[in-house]
């Protein structure tokens, strides 16, 4: 059986043109190199060199040299790729993210991660939390960053941050003169409903949501509606960091409503090394942000 090491020894001798120089390069004794060459020639049934000086290749030797160079280079690339994948230096991570996180915090995290892991490809898409959970269950993504994830036996959940809700309105709205907005005032302000605020368990809000004439799913469209003066809405503060000066954010009076930002993955699957590396990086960086804000 021809071993990879035999081909490496032969290629080194063919390049050096003599046993002594090849042995020094390989860090082996000349006698060990000579024995390895004889084993290779015995397997092939013909000599690889024209003389014992190893300075000229036979026709077979020339062919074996060319083939060995090519196959050893391919083998080395394969080993490097396998090692890089196992050590998270190579691979692909498919991530789905809620828009508020994608447009504010995520870019700087991606910049740092890709600088440290340039051969890891990040496939990022933004969508609402419910769609992210469905994509995760269908195995179309590896990680999801969502609002208030549902804990199930199929989902592994890590809390990344917490964000409080407030009233989002045009800067020239009368309510913008107040530092905090009561639930009663909000109910009279012409609320535009959205999936995020519908998760808030506050009796004062329920009636306002039932009376809402508009319900908008997409965050960009929702902010456009607010900017056009069609009403006010309730959103986490993080969402408003992407808004322009025509829109303002005001805190709610007690009780204050919050939403969690969670990292989710499939609980029953072993993630790829690159996926694990990105998840660990994201969790660590978000924990640092939380500690700094305290």
UniProtKB/TrEMBL annotation:
Q: Name one Pfam family in it.
A: HTH_1
Q: Name one GO molecular function term.
A: DNA-binding transcription factor activity
Span of domain HTH lysR-type: 2-58
Q: Where is the signal peptide?
A: none
Keywords for this protein:
DNA-binding, Transcription, Transcription regulation
Q: Fetch the Gene3D superfamilies from UniProt.
A: Periplasmic binding protein-like II, Winged helix-like DNA-binding domain superfamily/Winged helix DNA-binding domain
- GO CC annotation: cytosol
Query: Mind telling me which InterPro entries this protein's record contains?
Result: HTH-type_LysR_regulators (IPR050950), LysR_HTH_N (IPR000847), LysR_subst-bd (IPR005119), WH-like_DNA-bd_sf (IPR036388), WH_DNA-bd_sf (IPR036390)
Indicate whether DNA-binding appears among the record's keywords. Answer: yes
| Similarity comment: family membership | Belongs to the LysR transcriptional regulatory family.
Would you tell me the protein name for this molecule? LysR family transcriptional regulator
Q: What is the lineage of its organism?
A: Bacteria, Pseudomonadati, Pseudomonadota, Alphaproteobacteria, Rhodospirillales
């Amino acid at each position: 059986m021809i071993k990879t090491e035999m081909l490496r020894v032969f290629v080194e001798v063919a390049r050096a043109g003599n046993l002594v120089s090849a042995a020094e390069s390989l860090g082996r004794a000349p006698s060990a190199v000579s024995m390895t060459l004889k084993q290779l020639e015995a397997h092939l049934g013909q000599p690889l060199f024209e003389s014992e000086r190893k300075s000229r290749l036979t026709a077979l030797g020339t062919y074996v040299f060319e083939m060995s160079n090519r196959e050893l280079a391919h083998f080395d690339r394969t080993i490097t790729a396998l090692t890089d994948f196992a050590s998270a230096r190579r691979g692909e991570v498919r991530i789905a993210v809620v828009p508020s996180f994608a447009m504010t915090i995520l870019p700087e995290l991606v910049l740092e991660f890709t600088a440290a892991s340039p051969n890891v490809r990040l496939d990022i898409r933004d969508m609402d939390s419910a769609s992210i959970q469905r994509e995760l269950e269908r195995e179309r993504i590896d990680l999801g960053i969502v609002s208030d994830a549902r804990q199930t036996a199929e989902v592994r959940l890590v809390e990344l941050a917490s964000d409080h809700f407030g009233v989002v309105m045009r800067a020239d709205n009368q309510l913008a003169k107040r530092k905090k907005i009561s639930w009663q005032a909000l109910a009279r302000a012409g609320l535009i409903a959205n999936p995020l605020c519908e998760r808030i368990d506050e009796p004062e809000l329920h009636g306002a949501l039932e009376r809402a004439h508009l319900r908008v799913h997409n965050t960009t469209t929702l902010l456009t509606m607010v900017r056009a003066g069609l009403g006010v809405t309730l959103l986490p503060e993080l969402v408003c960091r992407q808004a322009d000066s025509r829109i303002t954010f005001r805190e709610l009076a007690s009780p204050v409503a919050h939403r969690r930002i969670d990292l989710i993955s499939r609980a029953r699957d072993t993630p790829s090394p690159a996926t694990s590396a990105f998840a660990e990086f994201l969790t660590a960086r978000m924990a640092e942000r939380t500690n700094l804000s305290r």
